[in-house]
Design a protein that fits this description.
single chain, alpha+beta, Beta Polymerase, domain 2, four-stranded mixed sheet, 5 helices, 4 strands
Length: 114
């Protein structure tokens, strides 16, 4: 489904989430990566969600950042429709699991923000 300006709802939700995150004071958030079907331009219908991988510094307050990201994701979901899923990893876990298929694909196919 397209918005009035012709942007599909998944892309609109992704853009809205990025804007909300950029407006937050999320000290310690090092990277935000849109990945999956929305990043590939293949999202369609309610079966597709909007996936983000967030990488936070090892010394950051991960729980607080995760709560803020999930709150923003929920607000965007209510506004735009598609579910926004946020996966949060610490920098050290991200680096350790860099070769894991999940992390590798998110980095390889994703669009980085923040």
């Amino acid at each position: 489904m397209a918005t009035p300006d012709g942007v599909d709802s998944h892309t609109a939700a992704a853009n809205a989430f990025v804007r909300r995150v950029e407006a937050l004071d999320t000290e310690g958030l090092e990277s935000l990566i849109l990945f999956g079907s929305t990043a590939r331009g293949e999202a369609s219908g309610l079966d597709s969600d909007v996936d983000f991988l967030a990488v936070v510094g090892d010394d950051a307050d991960r729980a607080t950042i995760e709560d803020e990201l999930r709150d923003a994701a929920y607000d965007v979901m209510l506004e735009h429709g598609p579910v926004v899923e946020v996966h949060v990893l610490s920098r050290s876990t991200f680096e350790t699991r860099r070769d894991h298929p999940f992390v590798d694909r998110a980095v390889r196919d994703g669009d980085a923000y923040v």
